[in-house]
Amino acid sequence: MGAVLAAVLGASLVGCSSTGGKRAEERAKAAEQGRPAVSTPRWTFAMVTHAGDGDTFWDIVQKGAKEAAAKDNINFVYAHDDQAQQQAQFVQNAIDQKVQGIIVSLAKPEALKDVLGKAAKAGIPVITVNSGSAQSKEYGALTHIGQDEEIAGEAVGAELTKRGKKKAVCVLHEQGNVGHEQRCAGAKKTFGGDLENLYVEGTNMPSVQAAIQAKLQADPSIDSVVTLGAPFAPTAVKAKDAAGSKAEIDTFDLNEAVARDLKSGTLGFAVDQQPYLQGYEAVDLLWLYRYNANTLGGGRPVLTGPQIVTGAEAAKLEEFIKRVTR
């Protein structure tokens, strides 16, 4: 994939465009039609994330980034890998190709510290998204866009307490992911009952189901299970059913299956961090920085969540979820 990224980047660094009108109405119309709405050069921005294959959350992030790129006359290049060292290599490829901006997630920050230092020395502006808000400024990023993971976890703990839950399991599907640890720690901080972490192999869904099922069978007093990603919620439901448990299944993040299960009552609640906004704003803020030296956040993260979504809210968001923007 590194060679592919390099090739795409290399091919993109030619030409410029001066399409798009100056009036707000013309900009909006151009954006609706997928045409550039600005007259700035055709810059290239690269996004590198820690997404694993098939993770629907990152499809939403990408959609937001691509739509902002179309509006801003940006050539958008995306690469991902759940291994931090490969992520770092993708960032290095982007630096070598002299892109005009880099967007990166920092699930395992230390592995990307050195390469982001190289981006800073090369004069390439960086925005971090989703994970790594605590390290973003230290590593030289303009800002971080996402939810504060500990605050999001605190919202979960408070919601579990509000629902009268007494014993919860927080399912971590990617060991070493600082954001996941922060979510569970935040939930434990505000939860009025007992919360225990359960580490699973997130790339192996049958193994995830077996681990949750075994936990529920071993301790029938568990009354809630919190997964940290939308694709894991249905698996947790299967584990619950197989174990004969009455535990409530809750999750971070939304997708169409989660919305359906929220509406039916199969899931209790979900935590939305608005991934479309993370992708869209990352591209837009890089464009604004290059065009007008604008920054947002005042040195602090730009928060996109958390929002607790129940069945009623899911019904209102359904049309947006189906079009892969929520």
Describe the structure.
The structure is a single chain. Mean pLDDT is 91; it is low at 10-24. The strands form 2 sheets. A 6-stranded parallel sheet has the order 2-1-3-4-5-11, sandwiched between helices. A 6-stranded mixed sheet has the order 7-6-8-9-10-12, sandwiched between helices. The protein starts with a helix and ends with a helix. With 326 residues, the chain is an alpha/beta fold. The chain has helices at residues 2-12, 24-32, 56-71, 84-96, 110-121, 133-136, 149-162, 178-190, 205-218, 233-243, 256-264, 275-292, 311-322, and strands at residues 44-49, 75-80, 101-105, 126-129, 144-146, 167-172, 194-199, 224-227, 248-252, 270-272, 302-303, 307-309. It is built from 13 helices and 12 strands. α5 links the parallel β3 and β4 (126-129). Helices cover 48% and strands 16% of the residues.
Structural topology:
Blueprint: H1 2-12, H2 24-32, E1 44-49, H3 56-71, E2 75-80, H4 84-96, E3 101-105, H5 110-121, E4 126-129, H6 133-136, E5 144-146, H7 149-162, E6 167-172, H8 178-190, E7 194-199, H9 205-218, E8 224-227, H10 233-243, E9 248-252, H11 256-264, E10 270-272, H12 275-292, E11 302-303, E12 307-309, H13 311-322
Parallel strand pairs: 1-2, 1-3, 3-4, 4-5, 5-11, 6-7, 6-8, 8-9, 9-10
Antiparallel strand pairs: 10-12
Helix pairs in contact: 1-4, 3-12, 4-5, 7-8, 9-10, 11-13
